[in-house]
């Protein structure tokens, strides 16, 4: 059960949106997802209150540095994927969550290249590798990409990050009304009304491509629950 966290030290980078898209898409595809709301602003929890119970999604609210690892341990057998939404900070909870992650996704806005917040997370990852020998896989995910952001400029960003040895997901997240709508009305891209939300099919296609790419990178670990071996002794009949 891979642990995927979304981090960028800056607020407004697109973390919560990206985390929610990935979580709801994986759940839609039949995977059991535990979505951990580790942002004190509780956007995910508010979304969940609006949405009500959703198949394959469990929400954990009120996480602390002390409790995070317990949640991961306790829910490991009932979760195929953990997704952690983090605050736009570089604090103890962010550092702890990153340390417990199999992969850190760093959303970066394709248009504005909010490089500072992303760079702080990249620096933190480098620091953890140097000082603690923790080599945590990570990728930048370009988000809020509009048609104005040309393929050329996206390639330039990718090239720049590649020089630093940073992987960039092939699937950018587009700037879409449907993604904003999720936080207005709750639910998922599959419960929104196509008659009311423009280009919902394109939005679904985008979130499917994102989840497919993540799944290829991080296949679910198949945990075989070793059946307790029952030794039977044939007792001679009394
Ligand atoms: N792909 C997107 N398409 C449209 N709006 C987006 C997208 N990503 C983020 N937003 C909007 O940008 C704002 C900040 O996004 P959010 O995901 O909350 O960022 P963060 O969690 O990093 O603070 C929100 O109003 C959100 O609706
Ligand atoms: Mg957020």
From TrEMBL:
Which InterPro entries does this one have?
DNA_Partitioning_ATPase (IPR050678), P-loop_NTPase (IPR027417), VirC1 (IPR009744)
* Originating species: Rhizobium oryzicola
One Pfam family this sequence matches: VirC1
Q: What is this protein called?
A: ParA family protein
Q: Which SUPFAM superfamilies match?
A: P-loop containing nucleoside triphosphate hydrolases
Please indicate which superkingdom the organism of origin belongs to: Bacteria
């Amino acid at each position: 059960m891979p642990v995927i966290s979304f981090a960028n030290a800056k607020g407004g980078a697109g973390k919560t949106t990206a985390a929610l898209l990935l979580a709801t898409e994986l759940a839609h595809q039949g995977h059991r997802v535990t979505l951990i709301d580790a942002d004190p602003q509780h956007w995910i929890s508010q979304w969940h209150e609006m949405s009500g119970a959703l198949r394959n999604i469990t929400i954990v609210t009120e996480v602390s540095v002390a409790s995070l690892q317990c949640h991961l341990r306790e829910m490991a057998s009932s979760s195929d994927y953990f997704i952690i939404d983090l605050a736009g900070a570089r604090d103890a909870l962010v550092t702890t969550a990153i340390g417990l992650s199999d992969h850190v996704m760093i959303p970066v806005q394709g248009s504005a290249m909010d490089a500072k917040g992303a760079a702080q997370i990249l620096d933190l990852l480098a620091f953890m590798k140097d000082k603690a020998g923790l080599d945590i896989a990570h990728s930048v995910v370009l988000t809020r990409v509009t048609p104005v952001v040309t393929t050329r400029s996206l390639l330039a960003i990718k090239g720049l990050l590649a020089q630093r040895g940073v992987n960039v997901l092939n699937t950018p997240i587009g700037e879409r009304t449907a993604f904003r709508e999720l936080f207005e009305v709750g639910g998922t891209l599959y419960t929104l009304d196509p008659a009311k939300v423009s280009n919902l099919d394109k939005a679904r296609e985008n979130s499917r491509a994102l989840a497919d790419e993540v799944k290829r990178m991080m296949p679910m670990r198949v945990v075989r629950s070793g059946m307790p071996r029952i030794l039977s002794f044939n007792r001679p009949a009394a």
